[in-house]
Amino acid sequence: GKSQEAQMPATVPCQYRTGKTLGSGTYAIVKEAIHVETGKYFACKVINKRLMEGREHMVRNEIAVLKRVSSGHANIVTLHDYFETAHNLYLCFDLCTGGELFDRICAKGNYYEADARALVRTIFVAVQYIHDSNIVHRDLKPENLLFRTEAENADIMIADFGLSRIMEEEKLNQLTEICGTPGYMAPEIFKKTGHGKPVDVWAMGVITYFLLAGYTPFDRDSQQLEMQAIIAGDYKFEPEEYWQNVSETAKDFVRTCLTIDPAARPTAAKALEHKWLADEKPHFVLDQ
Ligand code: ADP
Ligand code: MG
């Protein structure tokens, strides 16, 4: 581990051998990596320093956040190691072999309500933990939710704290920069009125909608129209054929998370008390 820039070869850190690419985002490529000494597999997020120039603080922030939350909860990816070479920064995580929630939704078309409910509850408990640690994730979406194993009932893990922020206790809605992934961004982000933890609850509403229907609520022909729809809270539980088997309680849960006013939106703790998630047994019939 640690920073051993001087002893490291210029490109590939000697302790790990990297293999196939697992995924990629804006600044990073994530590769499977084997720790040579132990033969253990990891997921190695490789961040190109040149691409990150001027934004190195973002990686430092990601590491600081991960140190605060990643070993404290079973459904948050664990950061194992961090080091750099002349060209790259490396973040080594527990390997999630089950892929992204995004791909599972696409493969299934949509989730059965009972399965969606179980996933949403698990993710929300982890989001509550993150918020209790005074962190806002800001990029919750199915691409950043990973399955630990290939099993159908594998644990779901929150990943990608690249846009997350540590919030000061007194200032609840102190963030103003526009960031995130448009379809999952809350209205207050576009309005630049200040935002905080409620943006994660909004994103969970979009994710829940996506799980149940197989498409997202604010998908429009352009980003401009998408933004307008989000600000107006303009979405429907339509077409009917995608929603006829979904309970009113589930729709009400989505509606609650997609409350336009962040002050009126439930907190993660409150969302967990909603009867869609709180009931011990599902209150709807498994008819799909
Ligand atoms: P970015 O900030 O560039 O979006 P992410 O941390 O989201 O980077 O990683 C990009 C992609 O790499 C993820 O969407 C996922 O497909 C894959 N990935 C990230 N972390 C892991 C992991 N621990 N195990 C397996 N795949 C991962
Ligand atoms: Mg990502």
Overall pLDDT level: 91
Briefly note the structural class of the backbone: alpha+beta
> Biggest sheet, in brief?
5 strands, antiparallel
Taking strands numbered 1, 2, ... along the chain, how are they ordered across the largest sheet? 1-2-3-5-4
**Number of DSSP strands?**
9
- Helical element count? 10
Low-confidence region ranges: 1-12
Query: Which ligands does the model contain, each kind named once?
Result: adenosine-5'-diphosphate, magnesium ion
The shape is globular
Q: Distance N terminus to C terminus?
A: 49 Å
The portion of residues assigned to helices is: 25-40%
Q: DSSP strand (E) fraction?
A: 15-25%
Question: What's the gyration radius in Å?
Answer: 20 Å
What is the ordering of alpha helices and beta strands?
EEEHEEHHEEEEHHHHHHH
